[in-house]
Amino acid sequence: MAFGLFRIIAGDFQHASGHQFRDGKLCLKSADRIHREIIDTNQIEKIEEVSADDSRSITGSFGWGLAGAFVAGPLGALAAGFIGGKRNEVTFICTLKDDRSFVGVINARDYRDLSAPFLLAKKDA
Question: What is the sign, positive or negative, of the torsion defined by CA atoms of 102, 103, 106, 112?
């Protein structure tokens, strides 16, 4: 079961973080609605990756570095600081069957879960 928070940076839905992908459904905030709009993934016409970004969180690296120093001394701090705090984000474009669309940013693991049915459909075609 995937549960992922993502943000929308452009499109027909509210440009903000806190949108969700869970249990095969998108839960999207609209500017004109109080409650989230729940959209089943079978209502997605097309989803495509625009870019993938590997970045590091400074606070995450620092925290892992401290933990590594505590466990294994200076060499552990260096190794843990280098490994820790890594984030993988994917920017994607999603077009719905009702012609609405948005550009979203989600972590790579949740993007794989979201896009998997569409990748399989492309291979079958």
Answer: positive
Three-state SS string over the chain comes to CCEEEEEEEEECCCCCCCEEEECCEEEECCCCCCCCEEEEHHHEEEEEEEEEEEEECHHHHHHHHHHHHHHHHHHHHHHHHHHCCEEEEEEEEEEECCCCEEEEEEEHHHHHHHHHHHHHHHHHC
Q: Which of 112, 93, 2 is nearest to 44 (CA)?
A: 93
* Mean pLDDT of the residues in the chain: 77
Domain definitions of the chain by residue range: 3-53+86-124
Please tell me the CATH code under which domain 3-53+86-124 is placed. 2.30.29.30
- 110 vs 124, higher pLDDT: 110
pLDDT tens readout for residues 73-97 = 665 544 545 555 456 889 999 999 9
Q: Which two tokens stand for residue 38?
A: 């729940």
pTM over 0.90: no
